[in-house]
Amino acid sequence: MTLPFFWVDAFSAQVFGGNPAGVVPLARWPADALMQRIAAENGLSETAFLVRTGPERLQLRWFTPACEVDLCGHATLAAAFVTFAFTGQAGDRVVFESRSGPLPVVRGADGRLELDFPARPARPVPAPAGLLRGLGATPAFTAQARDTLCVFATEAEVRALRPDFAALAEVETFGVIATAPGVECDFVSRFFAPRAGVPEDPVTGSAHCTLVPYWAERLGRDTLEARQVSARGGRLRCVLDGERVRIAGHCALYLRGEIQV
């Protein structure tokens, strides 16, 4: 079987930045086990698989090297980029049908793509068992949604984190978000998900479903500029819109080829 494959750097206008995602457009769904093996072989934090169901609608699934996930921002951005640039998609809007419901994506005049995702506000909780040992630092505040939100006082503290990923993988949570006020933006973050086979994700759109409600309330503004301060780094423009979060960024194509399986 020959499958088209695209490697896209999401949340970056140039290659070698943002978060790399694999995108595999399909005519029909193969076995789940095959998609999981492709994602593991790719070794990217997520590989997106999509099947068209209508003129503006596609089904979308995401796999890390270790498991299928319920929501992924950067791979959705990459999937929209491929859909507009390489599949003959008309107009400037597509809707992805996913395990997290319909996810519209709109292409702006500047080429930036805007995701429309569900907000996932976190509720305050004590730090889960093992979290502080795994992070090697103590946040000022912790809260829980799908991921554990860890709020620090300064950007420097977030940048300085050197987690013990083996210890962090023992924490009962999908992922860990570390965040703080930004020096040159509204807030910064890093994201760790060793339980899902992703020790540190370069830029994590889905984490902003939790970050944006928190920072919008704290700063008293619905429109925010964010930076993910991983080694690769990424820029995100975010808007809290009721129970939805809009997250916008650019994409750059790194590789186009074929998978032989």
Describe the model:
By secondary structure, the protein is of the alpha+beta class. 20% of the residues lie in helices and 42% in strands. The protein has 6 helices and 18 strands. It has an 18-stranded mixed sheet that branches. It is globular. The model has no long low-confidence stretch (mean pLDDT 96).
Structure keywords:
261 residues, alpha+beta, Diaminopimelate Epimerase, Chain A, domain 1, 18-stranded mixed β-sheet, 6 helices, 20% helix, globular
Give me the count of strands. Answer: 18
Number of helices: 6
Range of helix content: 10-25%
Topology order in helix (H) and strand (E) letters: EEHEEEHEEEEHEEHHEEEHEEEE
CATH class of the largest domain: Alpha Beta
> What is the strand content?
35-45%
- The residue-averaged pLDDT reads 96
**Terminal Cα span:** 5 Å
CATH superfamily of the largest domain: Diaminopimelate Epimerase, Chain A, domain 1
Q: What best-fitting shape do the alpha-carbon axes yield?
A: globular
Q: Output the CATH topology of the largest domain.
A: Diaminopimelate Epimerase, Chain A, domain 1
CATH architecture descriptor of the largest domain: Roll
Structural class category:
alpha+beta
Number of domains: 2
Computed over alpha carbons, the radius of gyration is 17 Å
Return residue spans where pLDDT drops below 50 for at least 5 consecutive residues. Answer: none
Main beta sheet, described? 18 strands, mixed
